[in-house]
C-alpha cells in the first residue's frame, strides 16, 4: 500500500521497557497504518548508550515506514515539529518512596518538559502521558504548555479499560467482541472506578455477581502484575498505548473509550483535573466527553473518591 502521509512522533523514556515494546508497534504500522514516522527518541543522559542501541535495533529492522530518527536528552531539540509526543519517561517508584516523593520527582520532570513544549512545540501537538502518576503528570505538563489547546493533553487509562474488558469477558464467558462501554473513571490508581453501569454484552446490560471484587481486581491489577513479575506491566502497557493512539487518531464509533483528559466540569468533577471519562473518539485526534450518562448513587460516590485523590495530588504538585 502507498504511504499516504508522515507524522513526527517523539517517545520519552525511549531507552526504557515500555518504549522497547511500543516502538516496534509504532514502526510496523500497527498504530497509524501506512504512515511514515519521523522518530524522536528522548531519554536522560545516563541512558545515552542504551538509547544508541535502541536506534541500532530500529535501523536493523529496516522498517519501510521509518523516516528520519533523532535521539538525545534535550526536549527542546526533540519536541520541535512533533505531531505527537508519548511521555513514557518518569521517575520510577523506588522501594520506600512515598507517593508524595514520586509526585515531586515527576512534577519537576513534567514542568521542565511542559516548558520545553511551550517554547518549541507545535501548537497542535498531541500528548499522551503514561508515566505515573499519569493524570497529575499530564495536568502539570498542560499547565506549563499553555499555548497548546487543553484537549490535546491525554493520559493513559486504556490499560485499565483493556483489563476490565478481559476480566468481564472471562467472568461472563463471552467473547471480547460482544462487550461494549465498560468505562474507567478518574485516576489511573487504586481509586479508579471501572464501571459496568453502561456496559452491554451482546447488546444487553448485565450485572456481575461480585461487582466489588471486579472493581478491586482492576484497581489493583498493576500491583498484581508487579508482584508476579517483579516488574511493572510492560507489553500490556505498550499495547494500551497503541490502542489509545490508534483510536484517538482514527476515531471509533462502536464503543465508548476511556482516556484521561482535562475536565471542563463534566459530572461535577473539578474543572481542570485530568480525569478519565467516557470518551467518543471522532477521528483526526478529535474526541468528545460523553457528558449525559445517568449515574447511580453508587457510581457518583465512586467518582467522588477518585476525584478527591486527584485534588490531593494536584495540591501536592502545586505545593512543589
Ligand atoms: C500499571 O497499571 O500496571 C502501572 O501503571 C503500575 C505502575 O505503577 O507501574
TrEMBL record:
Annotated keywords: NAD, Oxidoreductase, Tricarboxylic acid cycle
Domain Lactate/malate dehydrogenase N-terminal: 9-153
Family: Belongs to the LDH/MDH superfamily. MDH type 2 family.
One of the GO biological process terms: malate metabolic process
Listed Pfam families: Ldh_1_C (PF02866), Ldh_1_N (PF00056)
Catalytic activity line of the entry: (S)-malate + NAD(+) = oxaloacetate + NADH + H(+)
Principal EC category: oxidoreductase
Origin organism lineage: Eukaryota, Sar, Alveolata, Ciliophora, Intramacronucleata
EC number, as in UniProt: 1.1.1.37
Protein name as it appears in the record: Malate dehydrogenase
Domain Lactate/malate dehydrogenase C-terminal: residue ranges: 157-314
GO MF, one annotated term: L-malate dehydrogenase (NAD+) activity
Amino acid at each position: 500500500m502507498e504511504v499516504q502521509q508522515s507524522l513526527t512522533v517523539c517517545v520519552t523514556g525511549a531507552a526504557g521497557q515500555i518504549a522497547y515494546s511500543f516502538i516496534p508497534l509504532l514502526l510496523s504500522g500497527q498504530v497509524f497504518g501506512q504512515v511514515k514516522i519521523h522518530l524522536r527518541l528522548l531519554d536522560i543522559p545516563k541512558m545515552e548508550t542504551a538509547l544508541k542501541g535502541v536506534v541500532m535495533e530500529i535501523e536493523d529492522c529496516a522498517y519501510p515506514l521509518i523516516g528520519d530518527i533523532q535521539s538525545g536528552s534535550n526536549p527542546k531539540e526533540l519536541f520541535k515539529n512533533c505531531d505527537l509526543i508519548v511521555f513514557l519517561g518518569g521517575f520510577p517508584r523506588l522501594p520506600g518512596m512515598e507517593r508524595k516523593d514520586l509526585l515531586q520527582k515527576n512534577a519537576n520532570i513534567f514542568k521542565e518538559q511542559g516548558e520545553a513544549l511551550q517554547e518549541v512545540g507545535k501548537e497542535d501537538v498531541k500528548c499522551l502521558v503514561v508515566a505515573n502518576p499519569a493524570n497529575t503528570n499530564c495536568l502539570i505538563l498542560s499547565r506549563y504548555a499553555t499555548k497548546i489547546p487543553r484537549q490535546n493533553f491525554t493520559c493513559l487509562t486504556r490499560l485499565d479499560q483493556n483489563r476490565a474488558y478481559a476480566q468481564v469477558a472471562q467472568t461472563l464467558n463471552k467473547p471480547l467482541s460482544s462487550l461494549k462501554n465498560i468505562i474507567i473513571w478518574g485516576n489511573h490508581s487504586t481509586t479508579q472506578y471501572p464501571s459496568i453501569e453502561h456496559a452491554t454484552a451482546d447488546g444487553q446490560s448485565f450485572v456481575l455477581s461480585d461487582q466489588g471484587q471486579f472493581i478491586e481486581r482492576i484497581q489493583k491489577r498493576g500491583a498484581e502484575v508487579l508482584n508476579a513479575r517483579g516488574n511493572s506491566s510492560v507489553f500490556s502497557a505498550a499495547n494500551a498505548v497503541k490502542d489509545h493512539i490508534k483510536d484517538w487518531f482514527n476515531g471509533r464509533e462502536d464503543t465508548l473509550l476511556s482516556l484521561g483528559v482535562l475536565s471542563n466540569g463534566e459530572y461535577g468533577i473539578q474543572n481542570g483535573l485530568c480525569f478519565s471519562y467516557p470518551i467518543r473518539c471522532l477521528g483526526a485526534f478529535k474526541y468528545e466527553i460523553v457528558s449525559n450518562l445517568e449515574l447511580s448513587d453508587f457510581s457518583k460516590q465512586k467518582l467522588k473518591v477518585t476525584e478527591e485523590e486527584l485534588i490531593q495530588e494536584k495540591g501536592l504538585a502545586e505545593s512543589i
